[in-house]
C-alpha cells in the first residue's frame, strides 16, 4: 500500500490493516487513542472492583465480578490492537504508571455507595457506548473489530447497571436516596467523558478526516443527553441540571454547561483519586515484577513462552 | 450500526457470533430432579452442602481481593474467572443446602446472615496470601483436592450434587492447571522465586492435613458424600508431580484434626465476613 492507496482506502470507507502503509502521524495518533482506551479499561476496573467483595447479594457479586473481568479482557484486546501498530504492552503500561499517558478522567471519582455501581453501568458505560459505537467503523481494522465485541459487552454492562438502579428504586427510601445521590455525583462527570467542547478540541479535525473519530464531542454529548433523560424519568430520578429541558424547535434537550475547569483539573492529575488509581497499578506492576521474571527465566530454560 | 440510538444498535439484531463468549446461557441444572433422594438425612445433606459451598464462597472471596493487583493482565482475568466459577459453585451448593434444610433460607440468607462459627469451610480457604506464590500454592492445594473430590462426587446418589459436581469438574480442571503452571514457573524460575515458592508450599501444607479428615457428616452420607480419605492418594500423586516439575522438595502433610468443618476458624474468616456481610446487613429490607 502506498500513500495514495491509503487515501483511497479512507475515502472509500474501507479498513486500514496493520501491514498497510499509513502516515506516521496516523499510526501515532491511533496508538495514543487505543492505549488511552486500554488504560481506561484497566483503571476502570478499580472503582467498581472495590465493591466486589462487599456486594450485597451473591447474584450482584457474580455480575460485578464478571463485569470487572470483562474490563480486563477489553484492556487486553485493546493493548493487542495497539501492538499491531508496533507498540509494546510493557512500554504502554510503563507510560500509564509514570503518568505519561492518560486514561478517562471519570475513573478518578470515588464510588461511595453500591448505587455508584449501578450509576456507573447506566451513565458511565452508557456514555462509553455513545463514544464507542461509532468507533466500530474506525478506519483502523483491528480497533474497529475490537470495538464491536467491546460494545456488545458494554451494552450488557449498561443494562445490568440500570436494572440494579431500578431494583434499588423499588427498595427502601434510603436506597432511593442513595440512587439519587449517586446520579447527582456522576451526571456531570459523565457529560465530561465526551471531552472538551468542539471549539476547544484541537486534534479532532485530523482524526475526523482519518475516520478514527466519527462524530464531534458536542454531537456525541447531545445524543447521550437525549438518550438519558427518558431513562432518568423511567427510573424516577432527577438529573442535577436546572436548565435541562426539551427544546421542541431543535428537537433536542437543552442542557447546562459542564464545569470545564473541573475537567481540566482532573485531566491534569488533580482529581479526587488520580494518585490512588495510578498507585494501585504501579504497586501491582512492582509487586509482580519478580513473578514475571520467574516466568521469563522458566521459559528461557525450557525454550518456550507462557 | 445506527448512530441515532447507540444503545438500540447494540441489541437489535441476533448476531451471537459477535459476542465474545456467546449468549447461549443454559441452566446447568435444567432437568435435574430437586427432590431429596430416599433415605438421606436432610440435616446431614444440608450440612454437607454448606461445607462444600462455604469452601468455594470463602476461597472465591480471597481471589476477588486479587482482581486488580495480579502480576499480569492475563492473571487478573484468570483469577477473576476462577473466583467467578467458585462463586457459581457456592451459589448452587448454598441453594441446595437451603432446600435440604427446608427452613426457607436461600443462598443470600446463608452467605450473609450466618456468623463465623456457623461457617463450615476448611481453614485453607480463608487464609490470606502475602504474595502471589502463596496464592498459587494455596490454589494448587485447594483445586487439586476439590477436583479429586468433585470427580467422585459426580457419581453421588443425590442427582443435584452429582450435577453440581460434574459442572465443577470442568471448571476445576482448568483451575488446577492454571495453579500448577504457576507453581512450576515460580518454583523453577529464579533463585528468588524458587525460595518464595518453597516457603509458600511449606506454609500452606499445615493447612492441607485438614482436607482429608473425614467429618462424621461425610461418613453418615455414604453414597451421597465423598469420604475425603479416599482421594488422598490422588492428591499426593498430583502434588508430587507438580513439585518435582517445580524443582521443589516433596512434602509431607501433617495430620491435624478437622476444625473449620466444625465452625472453628481463624481471625481471617471474621475479617472476610466483616467485609462481605457489611452492606447486606446495613440495609434491612433492602432490595438489590
From TrEMBL, chain A:
Membrane-spanning intervals of the chain: none
Gene Ontology CC terms: cytosol
Matching InterPro entries: Aromatic_CoA_ox/epox, Ferritin-like, Ferritin-like_SF, PaaA, PaaA_PaaC
Any one GO MF annotation of this record: phenylacetyl-CoA 1,2-epoxidase activity
Annotated GO biological process: phenylacetate catabolic process
Protein name: Phenylacetate-CoA oxygenase subunit PaaA
Gene name tied to this protein: paaA
TrEMBL record, chain B:
Parts of the chain that traverse the membrane: none
Domain of life according to the entry: Bacteria
Pfam families per UniProt: PaaA_PaaC
GO biological process, alphabetically ordered: phenylacetate catabolic process
Cellular component, GO, one term: cytosol
InterPro entries: Aromatic_CoA_ox/epox, Ferritin-like, Ferritin-like_SF, PaaA_PaaC, PaaC
PANTHER family xref list: 1,2-PHENYLACETYL-COA EPOXIDASE, SUBUNIT C (PTHR30458:SF0), PHENYLACETIC ACID DEGRADATION PROTEIN PAA (PTHR30458)
Protein name: Phenylacetate-CoA oxygenase subunit PaaI
